[in-house]
Amino acid sequence: MADFLGMMKQAAQLQSKMQAMQEELGKIEVEGVSGGGLVAVRMSAKMEVRAVKIDPSLLKADECEILEDLLVSALGDARRKAEAAMQEKMAGLTGGLGLPPGLGLG
User: Fold this and answer.
1) Helix (H) / strand (E) containing 84
2) Cβ pair 45, 30 in contact under 8 A
3) Is residue 19 part of a domain?
């Protein structure tokens, strides 16, 4: 029975840590860029887009396709960086708990 209570306590601690980590992820920001910095996207580690910056030189009618491609690229770059930040936080959270790999907490 003591084993079960210990597991419940550990689960409650993990839940509390997960909530705190979610708050931290909302505060972490990454920036994805493309076109040598012509387009930049700022995103939280929770994948929330916070800002988009577009160099004025791209704001021409005949440059629309290029701008769209650069936005997609910058968003992808920001997403990869946000995922890396999230994985880093998850590794720190679950590292000392002895959880099996691939538990799917991320």
Assistant:
1) helix 64-94
2) yes
3) no
Q: Is residue 45, in this structure, part of any structural domain at all?
A: yes
Q: Which of 80, 82, 69 is nearest to 39 (CA)?
A: 69
Residue 44 in domain: yes
Report yes or no: 93 and 18 within 8 Å, Cβ to Cβ. Answer: yes
CATH number, domain containing residue 79: 3.30.1310.10
- The per-residue pLDDT string of the chain (106 residues; one tens digit each, 9 = 90 and over) reads 668 888 888 888 888 888 888 888 888 899 999 999 999 999 998 889 999 999 998 888 888 889 999 999 999 999 999 999 888 888 877 665 555 555 444 4
By the 10 Å C-beta count (0-12 exposed, 13-18 middle, 19+ buried), 82 is classed as buried
Give the pLDDT of residue 105: 47
The backbone torsions φ and ψ at residue 32, rounded to the nearest 5 degrees and listed phi first, read -100, 135
The vertex-74 CA angle with 62 and 78, nearest 5°, equals: 165
